[in-house]
Amino acid sequence: MTVPSTAGTSPASSAARIAPGVVTGENYRALVAACKAGGHALPAVNVTGTNTVNAVLEAAAAARSDVIIQLSNGGARFFAGEGFPDAAEARVLGAVSAARHVHMMAEHYGVCVVLHTDHANKALIPWVEGMIAHSEAEFQKTGRPLFSSHMLDLSEEPLEENLEECARVLRRMAPIGMSLEIELGVTGGEEDGIGSEDLDAADNSRLYTQPEDVARAYELLAPLGDFSVAASFGNVHGVYAPGNVKLRPEILEASQSLVAERFKLGHNPLNLVFHGGSGSDKSEITRAVGYGVFKMNIDTDTQFAFATGVGEFILKNGKAFQHQIDPETGAPYKKQYDPRKWLRLGERKMVERLQEAFADLASAGKSVAAK
């Protein structure tokens, strides 16, 4: 249960204290509110298996920060096993399997975890609805869903079609305490089959969300349930050469101001999401957080960190990945090619990179998890 904050204390000390583990419903909303009140955001880290899940949990515990664990459709499918015969079913079952692992382990790492799924375009709506069905069944048993939230990325569709479909899905999610992330405008680059790596192929004007579109989304969705907005301000997925990306965080401020004024709300009423956080300038990250961003996606940098840890070991111990026994000395290489050895090095590099993310987002030391 959450405990109301106490007036007159600092945001960090006044934040609700929440039982560690996966947060949903009221506790999810309390965590988001604590981030915005405390002037920090949480990294949303894409995972593909138990190694990356455990690395995220280890990193969050070390930083004493809460965290967001998320799966793309491809990451969920990979979690189920690339050999699974039905790719559509694998996306659902892989996500559910990952969710159950996170539920089992998160509370023991002592931090609060938002469990989320990443971009789902129109073709992937059945994936999202399949996961919601599992959350509905879980809610009937335990009173809480499996996931904290899901994302629908219908930014390629006309605005009204985007929002009407988001509203339809949110009506199903809200009664079981789930939040919906939507996308307005287009985040450049490609993320697991969604979008394009050709920045010139994107309509540049659509890389910058229009505040009027955000106001329309608030008007339609706010009465239905909890939602967040991935508003595009020039951000892209992946890492690109300097000069190719022009971030304009002031677009976030304009959207917040318009919604606050039009609907007579307080400061930064929208819960905003920053996609394409890998490789972003730290000053731009700070500005975005100041405009109400509570979540920043990071995938490319953590993938590279994991690969670096594994790659350095393989380059140093090349013979062990070609021979079980050294052909010249007869020495066994089992301790080198044991997957636990090199996978652990990948985890450590990922943990190390995430410490940087927690620092950039000012979330280190600010977990609201009850001790």
UniProtKB/TrEMBL annotation:
<keyword id="KW-0324">Glycolysis</keyword>
<comment type="similarity">
    <text>Belongs to the class II fructose-bisphosphate aldolase family.</text>
</comment>
<dbReference type="GO" id="GO:0005829">
    <property type="term" value="C:cytosol"/>
</dbReference>
<comment type="pathway">
    <text>Carbohydrate degradation; glycolysis; D-glyceraldehyde 3-phosphate and glycerone phosphate from D-glucose: step 4/4.</text>
</comment>
<keyword id="KW-0862">Zinc</keyword>
<dbReference type="InterPro" id="IPR000771">
    <property type="entry name" value="FBA_II"/>
</dbReference>
<feature type="binding site">
    <location>
        <begin position="297"/>
        <end position="300"/>
    </location>
    <ligand>
        <name>dihydroxyacetone phosphate</name>
    </ligand>
</feature>
<dbReference type="GO" id="GO:0008270">
    <property type="term" value="F:zinc ion binding"/>
</dbReference>
<dbReference type="InterPro" id="IPR006411">
    <property type="entry name" value="Fruct_bisP_bact"/>
</dbReference>
<dbReference type="GO" id="GO:0006096">
    <property type="term" value="P:glycolytic process"/>
</dbReference>
<feature type="binding site">
    <location>
        <position position="237"/>
    </location>
    <ligand>
        <name>Zn(2+) 1</name>
    </ligand>
</feature>
<feature type="binding site">
    <location>
        <position position="238"/>
    </location>
    <ligand>
        <name>dihydroxyacetone phosphate</name>
    </ligand>
</feature>
<feature type="active site" description="Proton donor">
    <location>
        <position position="118"/>
    </location>
</feature>
<comment type="pathway">
    <text>Carbohydrate biosynthesis; Calvin cycle.</text>
</comment>
<feature type="binding site">
    <location>
        <begin position="276"/>
        <end position="278"/>
    </location>
    <ligand>
        <name>dihydroxyacetone phosphate</name>
    </ligand>
</feature>
<keyword id="KW-0456">Lyase</keyword>
<feature type="binding site">
    <location>
        <position position="183"/>
    </location>
    <ligand>
        <name>Zn(2+) 2</name>
    </ligand>
</feature>
<feature type="binding site">
    <location>
        <position position="153"/>
    </location>
    <ligand>
        <name>Zn(2+) 2</name>
    </ligand>
</feature>
<dbReference type="InterPro" id="IPR013785">
    <property type="entry name" value="Aldolase_TIM"/>
</dbReference>
<feature type="binding site">
    <location>
        <position position="119"/>
    </location>
    <ligand>
        <name>Zn(2+) 1</name>
    </ligand>
</feature>
<keyword id="KW-0113">Calvin cycle</keyword>
<dbReference type="GO" id="GO:0004332">
    <property type="term" value="F:fructose-bisphosphate aldolase activity"/>
</dbReference>
<protein>
    <recommendedName>
        <fullName>Fructose-bisphosphate aldolase</fullName>
        <ecNumber>4.1.2.13</ecNumber>
    </recommendedName>
</protein>
<comment type="function">
    <text>Catalyzes the aldol condensation of dihydroxyacetone phosphate (DHAP or glycerone-phosphate) with glyceraldehyde 3-phosphate (G3P) to form fructose 1,6-bisphosphate (FBP) in gluconeogenesis and the reverse reaction in glycolysis.</text>
</comment>
<dbReference type="Pfam" id="PF01116">
    <property type="entry name" value="F_bP_aldolase"/>
</dbReference>
<dbReference type="GO" id="GO:0006094">
    <property type="term" value="P:gluconeogenesis"/>
</dbReference>
<dbReference type="GO" id="GO:0019253">
    <property type="term" value="P:reductive pentose-phosphate cycle"/>
</dbReference>
<keyword id="KW-0479">Metal-binding</keyword>
<feature type="binding site">
    <location>
        <position position="275"/>
    </location>
    <ligand>
        <name>Zn(2+) 1</name>
    </ligand>
</feature>
